[in-house]
Structure of 2-hydroxyglutaryl-CoA dehydratase, D-component:
Amino acid sequence: MADYEKMWEELGMNMELHDRLCQVLPTAFGDVYLSQENRPEGMGFWDFVVSGIHGIRPAELIEAQKNGQKVFGTFCVYVPDEVVIAAKGIVTGLCGGSQFWVPGGEKVLPKGTCPLIKASVGARLDKTCPFFRIADMYVGETTCDGKKKAWEILGEDVPMHIMDIPQMKREKDIVKWAGEIEEFKKVVEDFTGNKITVENLNEAIKIINNKRKALGRVFNCRKAAKVPISGKDALLMMQIAFFDDPVRCAEMCNKLADELEKRIADGVSVCPEGTKRILVTGTPLAIPNWKLHHIIETSGAIVVCEEMCTGTRYFENMVEEDLPTLEAQYMALARRYMKTNCACFTPNTARFDDILRMVDEYKVDGVIDVNLKFCNLYDTEGFLLERTLKEKGIPVLGIETDYTDADAEQLKTRIGAFIEMLG
Ligand code: SF4
Ligand code: SF4
């Protein structure tokens, strides 16, 4: 990634520290990804993106900024990309998934904060992530307590807009969320200098719906008896989807889906017949957090679905298209986004219904409920979720982990025993 050194310097990055990150990533990627056999050829695109993860897309974003476009950094799947796209803005995900960034976050946050928040704050404060340097505005939300407080630190030297998310999903909460979307629209208009109209918002809704459909096509292929793609590869596609241009993302995912559909027709599988099929649910797995999938898939099972924000929650449910007024569009957006089932809502039993449906659709043998350490929301919800699954006779394993490798051996033992128990 040496070609990008000048760009990183101009972004004010900590070059020495960043060099250390650049040294570890290719080895980790090689060990986890390139060691797999019989990968779909289409994954070459995502391998290429990872090979220049801090260079290729950041350079595109900087070029767009030179042409007057604004970049919005987001941290949650509730923030409606459509509003930004309508104003010719660009959205980039900013969630940190590496232990490398955690100590930087711990300098200002309590150690008992979830690693996702610590890594995100560390990536910003340590100046080791170009996406955090490039974003013109951060968009936060009031989903969990850790994030709410982190915004106050992150917003000290970057414009920050916070969307106030309801905690329940009654009709009045959906109306409130539509109001938040309308307010966000005004913020985006002011910041970009571009007016959002019924027409350009409609166009943006279609762009993001197309991206959702393309991601959904790939997931659909994972339902086949002969699984044409590993869970690790599908996870990588999802993780990059938060950073990529949405039109290109849809195009590449559709190409991959074409190949996977052909593989299914030809009976090509990435694993032997009878391999146990796992659904992973819980807290998000931000890039480059591949630990859990790697352990599962090197323990004799395959991940066929992720019910998480780096999974089905990101692409399921479309926004109604071609509505005639902005007010109708805000409500349509609010309705779609409020169908997402995060543990920050009470009650959140629709998530359990989703998981039960997916267990059936993806022909799942067992569920692994993963919780990032110190995420009280998902940890607490785990009790009811696991009880619901057990009542239905679905084997479930609850685990708590972080970004370190300290628990890797213990996880291998527990996950190995769980897979063996599946018979
Ligand atoms: S888990 Fe909840 S807070 Fe985190 S990204 Fe998903 S929806 Fe947002
Ligand atoms: S994993 Fe939990 S604690 Fe961490 S950001 Fe998401 S909701 Fe908040």
In short: The chain has a mean pLDDT of 97. The longest strand covers residues 276-282.
